[in-house]
Amino acid sequence: MLSPGQFEVNEAWVLFRLNSRPIPTELDGNFDCVTFSDAASGILLCTELLCVEEPEAWPTQADHLLQLAFRRHKRFPKTILAAKGVLADLIRPEAARQGIDVIPLAANQLLVFSSEPRQAFAKQFERRSRR
Question: Which of 16, 21, 72, 104 is least surrounded by Cβ atoms within 10 Å, i.e. has the fewest?
Fold first, then answer.
């Protein structure tokens, strides 16, 4: 089982979705709200909306995500932990260009890093939108 104590600050970043279901918009389709957090400290480095319906834009968005997180720490991590599937596939090419290893993991293996931010996001945004 992974834990924040296994990492030094900025050794690994975690990439995960904050929303539990796609966020619909009238004009631009559905989005996921994704974030990078530092595995050791839990600090959220950046948050970005990713258009679910425009995979051709993902390489640009992946680069943008990495650059936003880089601005926060002033250096890249050695490793990115990302949920298997779309997020790991999204970040892998851009991470490789920066010499960063991507480790795809099952979403439940990332819960120690993602559960608290996801709960806060749900409390702030998802529950409010159901009213």
Answer: 21
pLDDT tens digits, one per residue of 85-123:
989 999 999 999 999 999 999 989 999 999 999 999 998
Return the pLDDT at 35: 95
The answer, yes or no, to whether residue 81 has pLDDT greater than 90, is yes
User: For the chain, which domains are there?
Assistant: 4-129 (3.30.420.10)
- CA-to-CA distance for 103 and 82, rounded, in angstroms? 6
